[in-house]
Write a structure and sequence with these properties.
By secondary structure, the chain is an alpha/beta fold. The protein contains 14 helices and 13 strands. It has one domain: TIM Barrel. Helices cover 43% and strands 14% of the residues. The longest helix is centred in the last third of the chain and has 23 residues. The N and C termini lie far apart (94 Å).
């Protein structure tokens, strides 16, 4: 049976690309490895391990021996928007149904044990979520007039602290990361830049998958290329007058270790899905099912495969080849990867350091008897 693929996004190329059954087999022949590594847990490949932001609210940063009482922990975490010194008005009704506080130190210890026990496992998914709200208890949701979720949201600062500690562990163990980001584009960009600036090559040598990416094409471009900025063509540093030509600069490969993964069940909800797929550099593109029912995983992967083919204008063979090459590069062991790429700014800083070192050496080499006598006279 042939699948006739027709571009359905306004403005998209109205061309057909035929997918033979063999293309589906070619694409899915590497799916068992893909599924085991990025979707399911398996004793042979190992699970992904990490704390999803939806489950970060029980975490306490107090030592295991001095965990706060449950009411104290959540009163500090969920505060009243109108009075930060008071608990959130909704907390009292939800408190009996919330889990007891968990020591983050103990959690990290367990996480490290699980990662070490499964050498091929990745860290994730971890990340930031500004949309998630703590669910209401079952007896509240049973009344259809009540909302499914409460108005309690885990503070972003709490989520960030948990993410960074898990990133530090991933760096120490050399594990890739699956990153969750929902309605937090600016915070995610800032977080990635902060990790790049503060964690050096340890961060840059990891591969980071932006899982079920749902950001805008603009945010994807910013993560790939960095923030663009304009300056006048003139060498003067003063602001250019209106109408003066300017030159747009963009830092190359702002985050070369990032990949973008898409699932139609999540990313496909956007009316700009094809524009987003086109905004991703071809060697950073990954696909996934993001689906919990194993019997549907192949179909979900095939759906997103077809969407990639339509959006990018690739034929089936090229789509199979590119996606497989990208996946294999993503999971390449750290010791087989090329050194992390450096930005132009980092390269210039290194050259300055080298020039200073060479200059100091030359001064020492130029010191002769005459120079010593001259210094003695002064």
């Amino acid at each position: 049976m042939r699948h006739e693929l027709v571009a359905h996004e306004p403005g998209a190329q109205q061309s057909r690309s035929r997918c033979e059954p063999g293309h589906r087999r070619s694409f899915l022949r590497f799916v068992p490895s893909f599924i085991l590594r990025t979707t399911l847990a398996d004793e042979r490949e190992g699970p992904r391990a990490g704390l999803h932001p939806w489950f970060s609210h029980p975490i306490s940063f107090s030592p295991p021996s001095s965990l706060p009482p449950k009411d104290e922990h959540y009163s500090r975490l969920f505060t009243d928007p109108a009075n930060p010194d008071a608990p959130h008005p909704s907390l009292a009704s939800l408190l009996p149904y919330l889990p007891d506080p968990v020591s983050f130190d103990a959690f990290l210890s367990d996480l490290e044990h699980n990662l070490v026990s499964h050498p091929s496992s990745h860290v994730g998914e971890i990340g930031l979520d500004r949309a998630f709200r703590i669910p209401n208890p079952p007896h509240v949701v049973a009344d259809k007039a009540n909302p499914k979720n409460s108005d309690l949201a885990t503070p972003l600062a709490h989520q960030l602290r948990i993410v960074e500690a898990q990133v530090d562990l991933a760096i120490r163990l050399g594990r890739n990361i699956s990153l969750h980001s929902v309605r937090a584009p600016k915070e995610t960009v800032d977080m990635l830049q902060g990790f790049k600036d503060s964690k050096g090559d340890g961060w840059r040598r990891l591969h980071v998958c932006l899982h079920s990416f749902g950001g805008s094409p603009e945010s994807a471009k910013q993560i790939q290329k960095g923030a663009s900025r304009s300056r006048p063509l003139s060498s003067s540093s003063s602001p250019s007058p209106r109408g003066t030509a300017s030159l747009t600069h963009r830092s190359p490969a702002a985050h070369p270790n990032t990949f973008f993964s898409f699932a139609t069940i999540i990313s496909g909800r956007s009316p700009h899905f094809h524009a987003l797929l086109r905004a991703i550099e071809p060697d950073r593109l990954l696909v996934e099912s993001d689906y919990s029912h194993t019997r549907e995983i192949d179909n979900q992967l095939w759906d997103v495969f077809e969407e990639v083919q339509l959006a990018r204008g690739w034929d089936a063979d090229e789509t199979v080849r590119r996606l497989e090459d990208n996946f294999r590069r993503f999971v390449t062991p750290l010791d087989e990867r090329p050194p992390p790429k450096k930005s132009n700014r980092e390269k210039k800083a290194e050259r300055r350091r080298e020039d200073m070192y060479v200059s100091d050496e030359n001064e020492e080499e130029d010191d002769g008897p005459g120079d010593e006598e001259a210094r003695a006279r002064t």
